[in-house]
Amino acid sequence: MTPRSDRPVALFVLRSCALGTITILVLIVAFVVGESVDVLRNAGLSRLWTDPTWHPASKTNPTFGAVPMIVGTLFATAGAVVVALPLGLLCAVFVNYHATHTLRRLVNGVIELLAGIPSVVYGLWGLTTLVPIIAMIRGPGTSLLAGILVLALMILPTIVLLIDQALREQPAELALSAAALGLSKSRIIWSVLVPSAWRSIGTASLLATARALGETMAVLLVCGNAIKTPTSLFDSVRTLTANIALEMAYAMDTHRSALFASGLLLLGLVGLLIAGIELLERRVRT
Amino acid sequence: MTAPSRRFDPRGLGPAHPSSAVSVGAAAAVLAVFAWLCFDMVRQGVGVVDWQFLVHEPSDAGRAGGIAPILVSTLWILAVCLAATVPLGLLTSIYLAELTPRDDVVGRITRRSLDALAAVPSIVFGLFGNAFFAYGLGLGLSILSGGLTLACMILPLFIRTVELGLRAVPASQRDAAHALGLRPIAIAFRVVLPQATPAIVAGLVLGIGRALAETAALIFTSGYQTRFPTSVFDSGRSLSVHIFDLGANIPGGDARAYGSALVLVAILFLLNRIATSILRLFGLEAPR
Amino acid sequence: MQLKTCEILSAVALLTFVALPGCARHANSETVIVTGSSTIAPLAADVAREFERAHPGVRVDVQTGGSSRGLTDTRRGLAQIGMVSRALGPHEHDVVGFSVAIDGVCVITHRDNPINSLSKSQVQKIYTGAIEHWSEIGGAHQPITVVSKAAGRSTLAVFLQYVGCDSTDIDADVVIGDNEQGIKTVAGNPTAIGYVSVGAAESALARGVAIRIPSLDGVQPSTSTIRDGSHPIRRVLNLVTLTRPEGVTRQFIDYFRSEAAHELIARHYFVSVDPP
Fold first, then answer.
1. Which letter does DSSP use for residue A130 in this model?
2. Shortest alpha-carbon distance between residue B41 and chain A (Å)
3. I need a surface site. Which of A89, B146, B249, C212 has the fewest CB within 10 A?
4. What is the set of domains in chain A, with CATH numbers?
5. Does residue C168 lie within any of the structural domains?
6. Given this model, what pLDDT does residue A84 score?
7. How far is C184 from chain B (nearest CA, A)?
8. What pLDDT shows up at residue A80?
9. With an 8 Å Cβ cutoff, is A177 touching chain B?
10. Is residue C14 in some structural domain?
11. Confidence of residue B282 (pLDDT cuts 50, 70, 90)
12. B198 exposed, middle or buried (CB, 10 Å; 0-12, 13-18, 19+)?
């Protein structure tokens, strides 16, 4: 039997919604490009990685080297995901398969609330509590490590909620047939249920990575923001987002434009990330 | 309506391998760190939170007085944001999950742009909202500009969460509905969507949390004004902007910053409950 | 039923995204919008409240977001008044400036740091990396954590002018944004040195925050040494307008510069300027 065709109007509405979301991105990219056009035309995008230093406000010899910030952004983001993803997965597994009903509701409730704590509160807490502790181990305290830990805390709720939902939606037949084969509980969880939810786990980590990459206020408070390529976890780093937030408030003319160009760079990084995932998915599919 | 398939409960399988201790330990560690954070928040903020704090206007740059107008503005901004996000988000996720094959070009571009949108730093949304909504469309610095900017920001999170939920609905359900002669759109709205309620609620919870927590995007769009708003065209300071100003800009604002954060968490808790009840009201069952 | 849901959802989406922006606001002629510097914004908001009380029917909306936003919004006509917490530059003579208050900048260290006074050349050497340990100037055997402000910030500009350096010479371990962040950073690190607004430092000290304000070249930084001119590092806080202000805008600026605002300015730890 062939399906009856849909009302074209309804389909049109749905499709325009999807196109609407694309439009938002197009508008934002156009806006960022438009604002950075001054630097792009006069200096060129490549100076962002060929210049040795970042002094866009200098009147005599402005330089736009953003490499230490790119490195800082990548380290902080990757670090946060590396810390938060396993923890989040373990938490979701705990909530789904080990916790009692009450405990599970409690943990879920707590995690949902944590998703709504403003990043500036995480930042303030990190700056007044975490940073002095790190400073006792090795100065200056505001460091890549502090950034990674605070970011990991911030993205954990998202990861736990998404993976928890994915695990909850695994069909019961899957686990039941595994149990019928006589597999132990941990084998069922780790060899059957978790792997079968890998696509959702992938999406969760992608969203979490994006969140960590785009986070601004908390990172600004705890990372130290010195523009140096970090050589250890205790070094101060500046991320691209912190750079925009720190300097935008007082930037004029070329400086402002350079900040938008660094925003463009950030979008480029996101593009690379997405392209990487696309490639990975294709390889898995074939 | 069909009953959702039974969920497997492995707790019935008795004691687990010692490896399960790892996940218990991880959960305990995470909860402990969050308890530490929350304890610090409560310790520093609970002293200022009382009824007076909730019903009075701020004075002395927020160092004294309450947060009443800020609460009102926050809820207005959130209302505008959700009024834009929920319909647009639900329709887009249905389109993505139900009406396009997985390797459809439009679907894939939409999905990839959403991923990209999710990683745009909030301050860029703020500057964009300032240029586009406030200046370009002439909405000014207003609750409307702020709410719409936030909507752009939380759309990816909401859509991806709902889409995941829609995709998780077993194919057999769709096949059954198909066999009854329902059109794909009808299947999507009557069969699949109701079953994805937990995902919709999760998307709402994440989206509301993200929107309530946002600072940078709002300073440039909905503004800094601490007066009671009289329309969506008024500027209004959100709770998170207030917390940011008190914590990072006003000397001696820490106690009230943490106090406001406690109120924000309480609001989030209330809204989560309300979201669940509204879904129940519309005949969609609540999760769990 | 399924299409009803679909239709309701699309109607709501259409309404919020198209209809609401369509009925754009008619600007109220009695509303003054003030945007800009986060340093001035809290003060301006308090002054605006007093001004509204004295002039019923008038609204003054204060927004924040930084000095550059104040200038941009004023030039675009999005705001009537911009707040700029620095002296106006050579490219900025298209706007009219009015100074409303003066703010000083001072060096701060951790409370446990025994050093009580610093000289200009010591500060300069610390910030350019010529002095790297506190022991070199009679302090503890620890490396110095240098806290500086982000490029473009006006506090950085006046500090650089004082020590006579270019921003490229500064060798910072930590870079910060607003004053409160600087105070929290220094209070959390016994080896740190930073510079912030004098008002912010005095108020933090009064609240018992773990910082110390060493004297600079023998002068103890305070609002009174800024007022009498003996404290060397200071900056002017400005309001700017696109054209010569008229009407309510004029009244508000005059009010801000009058005796009536002096008490509020003092309460925000700034120093008022004498009326011209």
1. I
2. 8
3. C212
4. 69-249 (1.10.3720.10)
5. yes
6. 94
7. 9
8. 95
9. no
10. no
11. low
12. buried
